[in-house]
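User: quick one
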Amino acid sequence: MYQYDQYDQKMVDTRVEEFRDQVKRRLAGDLTEDQFKPLRLMNGLYLQLHAYMLRVAIPYGTLNGKQMRMLGHIARKYDRDYGHFTTRQNIQYNWIKLEEAPDLLAELASVEMHAIQTSGNCIRNISSDQFAGATADEIADPRPWAEILRQWSSFHPEFSYLPRKFKFAVIASDTDRAAMRLHDIGIQLVHNDAGELGAKFFVGGGMGRTPMIAPEIRDFVPADELISYAEACLRVYNRYGRRDNKYKARIKILVHELGKEEYTRQVEEEFAHMKDLGLNPPVEELARITEFFQDPPFDLQANDELDLSDPDFALWVDQNTAQHKQAGYAIATISLKPRGGIPGDASSAQIDLMADLAEQYSFDELRVTHSQNIVLPHVRKSDLYALWQKLDEAGLAPANLDLITDSIACPGLDYCSLANARSIPLAQKISERFADLGRQRELGELKLKISGCINACGHHHAGHIGILGVDRKGTENYQLLLGGSGAEDTSLAKITGPGFTEDGVIDAIETVTDLYLEQREDGERFIDTYRRVGMERFKEAIYG
Amino acid sequence: MVEAIRLRDDDVHEEPAVSLDSFLDQSNATAVRIEAGEDARQLLPFLDRLSLIEIDFTVFGDGRGYSSAQILRESGYTGELRASGDVLVDQIAYLRRCGFDAFAPDSPINPKLMEEAFSRYDHVYQATSDQRTPIWKLRHG
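Assistant: Done. Structure below.
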């Protein structure tokens, strides 16, 4: 994985000192809260209901054991002994003291980590495919491109006061594990006819109040024009994105209001001005970065057979491991969705253990997924049983990946000042109601996503089953949505009808899953049956 | 009236800046002021005779002026480029990186903090109008 050189390290160290100075001026009253707010936000620090929340960047979700252990250390020293992995492949801490934040950032910098631009109206952490570099279905590793974008977007002077936040995702496979088209800019690496690698650009996707699927605006941007093309996309947005209403300020609204053709025309016109300005790193820079993402030294003779005589282990292997590009290896996903647990939470002890296991079994590499789980990307099949036993002892071996209890949930009203309803207790209750693993496996792949307000941090628009918490005359109310997908078959979920109480919405989920079991044809997932049968049939079942 | 900050050696331009509309209407004016939402590209035919372009920031969080400045510099404008209005020390380094070389803030800027802001970062990741050498160029010569 990527390692900082002297320049990268100096940038991050300098940022820590800059922020230390800003905090000092804020505490001394030299900065108003209004003036301080965008500065702290650009360092990932939010003021929540009870305390400051700090969001630490995990670029494209990749980190090593030492970095993971630092995240555990921070949970112990600065928080209440746990951290929360997020849908942006980051980690959040919910109980941070402002005066301690500079020291915390200094500790992060010591392991090549930071919280730069994890919030604010700027370019956020670049997300990517959690199976990058390990899966056979990619045409290249997308992470060097994400790293080029990370460096370019860090401290970008022109694009730090955008109309609204801005999120990139980069993938390199036709299988989309990163909800690419639900980003402000989604990039898919592709080959052109000459066999060169380049970027297909999708612009104007997003969730939030007005979900949109990003349209393709350019089928191929060469490697040595990536940055100038991205600058052109951003400049049109910075100049013409709406600033009169923060709920209409994302680029998706601009692209929608202008229309894809007109937005594209403006980008191409801007690009014509910019492409010869010397904005692009040379191809040698991409080559330099790509060197860091070479395959680890796989044992090419590693045994591809697996002893599945332990039935619990066999279930976990079946559900939570994926095929690796190298025979004899597997991609293992650690589910952070235990029965009755908080999706994405991990204790410092669990974080430490995952760091140890990555060092021992996965060439010192971990990934965070947008579904709030952790991946060990390169595990020898012959080590899987030992790995599973250690995970199981620590409560980290739920065999529920992509099943109904592997839900995404936002922090909700338990933490967030924007929320209308609680998300976490609902996720916990659903996880209890559907606890039986046999029943979950019978239901098969089922993406359940819960947001506590219309800002959609819990991705409810992209859920096969989505739940949206709203405030109805002072009481929490939950709307049910069906038919969304954040995968390559991207679609937006639709609301079934009137909302429910907390228990009522869980009953409604049972109703729709029962209907699925009754209606499904061979090999159909829930989403497939829903698409074939249609919303009306499901509505009838729910509302009678 | 807070004193303007200039990072240029040439003489202060005495002529008051006119609005973009008046400038386009008349004019042989040599100084113009544009608001956040106005299109800097309208000035491109006149860059040769302009000595001062002022870009106003009504609120510091409205970043349109950064793009306006970049566009003017990329198009070869070498005269004074002044940021006026809600210009604060915590944005001043980024403003400079986008080509501003003069500042007319509503409230005074502490000169010591401004110097620190300008000198704090040894390096930059991007090529922008201030012509600083981006890190990727340092890496590859």
